[in-house]
Specification:
heterodimer, A: 108 residues, mainly beta, seven-stranded mixed beta sheet, four-stranded antiparallel beta sheet, globular, B: 122 residues, 0% helix
């Protein structure tokens, strides 16, 4: 099983600032099969990024994903008020999907 | 409108069984693999199980293997999760999610339901 470790656990930033979230895998993620999701309180997760760097339909271009192998990054270029949420990475390159523990982006 | 609606959750005693359902609408159900993902109160996401479009490929997390069974009925546009020998640690909100592809591996989950809560307690 591939273990995903997200850091930091909590990111305290102000609107307009840049957010950089990390996801590290315990072994190489096949074909960059890595996704990022956003979850707000009381809501289901929403797909932001798949295949490490492809934005899902309707996702603003302030969200970008990068990385390969074992190290991946989600960047939010300028935080909007609606971006404060919990973010999860997921690998789907093996038969056992796994999620990271999440990074909470909170208002400073 | 593309939609997934889960049902069947509730309070159940340890060791008992429960069957969850997920009704799909607004898309061609048998074009897609489907998954169950759970979230314990205040915790992160955990993939539970996935099934291919034709039920030919099925996978389970180690934590539920041998106790849970995923299935689908394409004629009814429905996904199911039969949960047996339930444990307190199975307490969670259970989400149904659509895979972007027809196989339960190699694609992310692009549509999610709102979830159904399962509480295992005596």
């Amino acid at each position: 099983e591939i273990v995903l470790t997200q850091s930091p656990g909590t990111l305290s930033l102000s609107p307009g600032e840049r957010a950089t979230l990390s996801c590290r895998a315990s072994q190489s993620v096949s074909s960059n099969y890595l996704a990022w999701y956003q979850q707000k309180p009381g809501q289901a997760p929403r797909l932001l990024i798949y295949a490490a760097s492809i934005r899902a339909t309707g996702i603003p271009d302030r969200f970008s994903g990068s990385g390969s192998g074992t190290d991946f990054t989600l960047t939010i270029s300028r935080l909007e008020p609606e971006d404060f949420a919990v973010y999860y990475c997921q690998q789907y390159g093996s038969s056992l999907h796994t999620f990271g523990g999440g990074t909470k982006v909170e208002i400073k | 409108e593309v939609q997934l609606v889960e049902s069947g959750g509730g309070l159940v005693q340890p060791g008992r069984s429960l069957r969850l359902s997920c009704a799909a609408s607004g898309f061609t159900f048998d074009d897609y693999a489907m998954h169950w993902v759970r979230q314990a109160p205040g915790k992160g996401l955990e993939w539970v199980s996935g099934i291919s479009w034709n039920s030919g490929t099925i996978g389970y997390a180690d934590s539920v293997k041998g106790r849970f069974t995923i299935s689908r009925d394409n004629a009814k546009n429905s996904l199911y999760l039969q949960m047996n020998s339930l444990r307190p640690e199975d307490t969670a909100l259970y989400y149904c999610a659509r895979d972007m592809g027809s196989s339960p591996t190699h694609d992310a989950f692009d549509i999610w339901g709102q979830g159904t809560m399962v509480t295992v307690s005596s």
